[in-house]
Amino acid sequence: MHRSKWLLMTIVIIFMVFLSGCGTKDSNDVVSDLEDQLADLDSYQAVGTMKIQTGETVQEYNVQVWYKQPHFYRIELNNLNTKVTQIVLKNDDGVFVLDPAIKKSFRFKSDWPESSGQPYLFESLVKSVIDDKDRVFAKEEGNYVFQVKANYQNQSLTAQKVWFGKDLQPIRVEIYDPNEVKLVEMVFSKFEFDSKFDDDAFEMNRNLEGWDQTSLPAMKNMDNSKSFGIIEPSYIPTGVEKKDLKVVNQDNERKVVLKYGGEFNYSLIESRPQVRVASAPENSKSDIIDLGYGIGVLTEMTETRSLRWTYDGVEYLLTGDLPTEEMVAIAKSVFAQTGK
Questions:
Q1: pTM confidence score
Q2: Comparing 177-191, 239-253, 268-282, which segment has the lowest mean pLDDT?
Q3: Of 37, 91, 237, 331, whose CA is between 20 and 30 Å from 324?
Q4: Would the keyword Oxidoreductase be found if you checked this record's keyword annotation (predicted)?
Q5: DSSP state letter for 251
């Protein structure tokens, strides 16, 4: 009798443990669900806020993402510090960086975003979880939380923490440097799978020409004239010095040309181009670069590379034999400089 009682108690305990485990998911279960969701992904839209620590300043963006199979993207980035809105568009014609306030577009061929992760894209976040076999998993307030390696262009971003809701929608992302200092934070206020979009939602002309200009933030000191001040980068790489500065008129456009030489040789051209639609060379390789206060396009050619970006209505073209990290540092140093 005594033995039967202990056997019954053992069975009850095992049954209770089994019941307590029902409905709960471990790391492998959630990863498997994320893999299935990614494989079946048809479309989604997301809205959120992204904060990026750039030196002593925090750049804050309102972010809106649209995605539709197989490769259609529309990412709207509104920098609340600089009051500048940019749109990254991908469709059958390539990848575009649009500046709606000045109706400027730059087109290039790229495998973006596969070439570089983005904290506001569902695919990038899920892949970072799937690819990291040393991921750390936890559950917080009904959400699934993963600590994984970060895979971004900025090599100082080495680790990230990603929150997913019970329906696998991303909720929050925090990205850290090697010293565990948080440099990027993305918070999603809305995320919806299986979204429907207009037929022309991802077309360049609609996104560039369809803007109500009165709804766009006014760009500081921007006008429609060809005149602008000379803006010199505050950063020059070690072993490099300025060789020349000249102002030229070419194709009825005023251009400022700064030339540097030494350890690296490069030029920086500043202009307010009248041509609003431009493209990278067909045989080049291009990618989107985060400059902290905005985005630029890095183009790799046979012996040189170039970085192109727009700020305050002025287009900058940096070309030379510089490493990418040095080009980004120069571009960032242009920000907040005042024309002479």
A1: 0.84
A2: 268-282
A3: 91
A4: no
A5: T
